[in-house]
Amino acid sequence: MTSIKNGMIPFSIQGQVEQSKLVNVAICQYFLYTSLLFIPINASPVKEYQNPKDRKYTKQLLDAAPKESAAFMNLKHTAERGDGVIPVKYRELMSIAVALTTQCAYCMESHIQNAKKAGATKEEIAETVFITSAIRAGGAVGNGLLAMRMFDEV
């Protein structure tokens, strides 16, 4: 009799490992899909995410963890200072790149405003977007090199 071990349904016929993996993936996808069918459309009390109105919770968040928020704000102000070796415009373009990577809409909005005030152009913002996307994609290629080595070592 075939038993289920570690969430996998093994096939008793040697050489069917890949087929077993495909069956397991298909079963998981089926259960995920069917479980989503039974979630009511209005099940989440949150109607939208990253709304600018959420900024009204800033004080509440900072007050709820005063030591941590003080340390964070010190780091933030230090990183965003105007008297560093790196000019403000470049600091803001770097901040936009990070915000694009972390997908923080609030960060993108504030750093784009700051970059514009510091003299950044729309073209510089556009180049920042594409440089960021290329570097982000390059990270996947870099991890791909690690994956190839891991494959050889396993």
Task: Describe the protein.
With 154 residues, the chain is an all-alpha fold. 66% of the residues lie in helices and 0% in strands. It has helices spanning 17-37, 58-64, 66-79, 88-102, 105-117, 122-153. α4 (88-102) runs antiparallel to α5 and α4 packs across α6 (122-153). The longest helix is centred in the C-terminal third of the chain and has 32 residues, at 122-153. The chain is extended. The chain starts with 16 loop residues before the first helix and ends with a helix.
Low-confidence stretches: 7-14
The biggest beta sheet, please? Answer: none
* Average pLDDT over all residues: 82
Ends apart, CA distance between termini: 30 Å
Task: Summarize the amount of helix as a percent range.
Answer: 55-70%
Spatial extent as radius of gyration: 24 Å
The counted number of beta strands is 0
Count helical runs. Answer: 6
The arrangement of helices and strands along the chain is HHHHHH
Strand content: under 5%
